[in-house]
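Practice problem: predict the structure.
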Amino acid sequence: MIKKEILIPILVLVGFLSAVPSAFSEYYVGIFLVLLINFILVASYRFMVNIGMWSFSHISLMGMGAYTAALLVARTGLSFWVALPLGVLAAVATSLIICLPVLRTRGFYFFLTTFAAGQAMWWSWVLFDKVFGGFRGSGAVYRPEPIGDLTSYYYLVLGFTLLSLIILYRLEKSRIGATISAVRSSEELSEAMGMNVGMYRTMVFVIASTFAGLAGVLLTFYSGTASPQEYSVNYGLNILIYVIVGGTGSFVGPIVGASILTAVYETLRGFQILVPLIFGVILIVMVLFQRGGLVAIPSRISSWVEKLKRKKSTRHTTAVDI
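Answer:
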């Protein structure tokens, strides 16, 4: 169950997101729509981090879902409602193939192997241009009725985002989530207790890839095509920064990170050349001085206040005794 102290803020946030199409112009509706898709990405990425897997193929798996759905619709005329689950299944199938070599590694080597796998997928979209369209992309795809207009599609994405977050939250709070935390704490001890660590690592990787594929399908039908530029290394780095800056210790941490850094990005839209520098500075500051992320700041402030109160109380007691 969701704690009462965070239930009200969640309901307020959902109410605000539901009112976006009526309160903002189409430009900002588009920004919020992409932000909702990023919520799915960062929450599913954190699901992997919970077992100690920092992957760099998450965006590429997102792209596999996007390309599959886009090509099916653009070249065969398949319905969006059929292409969507097929795109998700393509991301799942690809993740299962990647699992074979990648999950044999740990730590930094896992990061490198997932980076290599992601780049192999990215270059396949570029080099096999007869299949994927190269840098031109998959070709134009259009949203069918009744989700053809931006407002209707926004609400569809909002529904998928809320459903995805609920599923990931329930998984984290379930017995599976407890087992994942145990594996992250000590794989050796978990194996000694009879846990099938390899199975759990594979399961977590595939589940996270499922939501990445869903995010890719949703994004490609917003942008109108699937192209290599959309699923580049830069996008992957941004997702990684969102998660770290927001904080991995809380379910809402990456969501907060994505929201605040998206606001920073939009504020600096006229100064795009400064965005990597500022994001880099923010990341360094958080890693050096606030490793718990943005969501840990209130508790840190509360701790400082408590320490000040104790110091004042101690001084007052000492003065009275004197």
